[in-house]
Amino acid sequence: MGRHVRSDDGRLLLAEEWGNPSGTPVLLLHGTPGSRLGTALPDLADHHPDMRFFAYDRPGYGGSDRLPGRRVADAARDAAAVADALGVEHFAVVGRSGGAPHALACAALLPDRVRAAAALVSIAPRDATGLDWFAGMTPFNVHEFGLAAESPELLDADLAARSAAIRRDPERLVEDLRAELSDHDLPIVSDPAVRATLLRTYREAVGTSHHGWTDDTLAFTHPWGFDVSAVAVPVLLWHGLDDAFSPPAHTRWLADRIPGATLVLKPNAGHFAAQYALPAVLEWLRDQDAQEGGGR
Fold first, then answer.
1. Residue 60 and residue 63: Cα distance in Å, rounded?
2. Measured between alpha carbons, how far is residue 137 from residues 20, 143, 234 in Å?
3. Would you call 118 helix, strand, or coil by DSSP?
4. Residue 41, CB-side half-sphere exposure with 13 Å CA sphere
5. Which of 72, 112, 206, 229 has its Cβ near the most Cβ atoms within 10 Å?
6. CA torsion through residues 198, 183, 123, 256, sign
7. What long-range pairs does 248-251 form, CB within 8 A, spacing at least 24?
8. What strand order describes the sheet that includes 262-266?
9. What pLDDT score was predicted for residue 294?
10. Distance CA 79, CA 102 (A)
11. C-alpha to C-alpha distance for 235 and 232, rounded to whole angstroms
């Protein structure tokens, strides 16, 4: 069961925690669209009994109040508020897909609290110098990000209609995505555990409104509110080389600008392979935490 915590400006955020209460704290940030329920497969805590996991719905998703006009950077203060409410001082953070830029925001803006960060299948800032931002991206994402830049009103209307369709039939989004999945992603999305997790998070994400989806998309295509080169904590960047939802060139761009970042480019892997990569990522985070004197 989730619990509501209050942000520093009075909004309510719906958070969840599981795993070992005395374990190494790890914040998991969900994708777009998504919710706290879709950050990991159900058996994650069983395989990592020494870790304490927590997550929350970003503003406008699931049970969290909306924050109109939010930036990617705003995730740092919300993450801090959730950590405070749960009694967590220091933690690692992992963001997958739409959660990845928000994980980098936490790493950049909470250097005294974040031990290490991992950004899986991330996009780069829209104003990334020298990056052909749309190259290799699926038509679905090109369309949505294009609307975000050119007509936020049309984007909002489009995502409102998509969200209403998902509320009627949560499998709708999964089926819509299948046409744009790589050959490597298709078997992953067909995995019963992955499919069930996706359906649960999509249902929760847009169960109340489409606003979280709209606000995520707008935040990604506007200035993020921080410089990725300011990240000073250890960072792992992971990307499948056959990802067309967030092309690997985006992560290469980030790796060139985040000092000391560890770059992992996985052959024969698409966007949803990040679900399977999480256990290895957690091992890397555990190593970083140990080096930094974890356990405080």
1. 8
2. 39, 10, 28
3. strand
4. 20
5. 206
6. positive
7. 249/131, 249/132, 249/135, 249/136, 250/122, 250/123, 250/124, 250/128, 250/131, 250/133, 251/119, 251/121, 251/122, 251/124
8. 3-6, 12-19, 51-56, 24-29, 91-96, 114-120, 235-240, 262-266
9. 46
10. 9
11. 8
Question: In angstroms, how far is CA 124 from the centroid of its own chain?
Answer: 13
Closest CA to 103 of 58, 64, 47: 58
Q: Residues 6 or more apart from 249 whose CB is under 8 A from it?
A: 131, 132, 135, 136
Burial group, residue 22, by CB count within 10 angstroms (0-12, 13-18, 19+): exposed
Residue-by-residue DSSP string for 13-44: EEEEEEE-TTSEEEEEE--SS--GGGSS-TTH
Strands 12-19 and 3-6, bridge-based pairing: antiparallel
Q: Return the H-helix or E-strand segment holding 259.
A: none
Q: Which residue has the tokens 């966007």?
A: 271
Q: Which residues of 185-196 are buried (b: 16+ CB within 10 A; e: fewer)?
A: beebbeeeebee
Q: How many CA atoms lie within 13 A of 148 on its CB side?
A: 20
Q: CA-CA distance, 64 to 6, in Å (whole number)?
A: 10
Query: pLDDT tens digit string along 20-41?
Result: 999 999 999 999 999 999 999 9
Question: Which pLDDT tens digit goes with each residue over 264-282?
Answer: 999 999 999 999 999 999 9
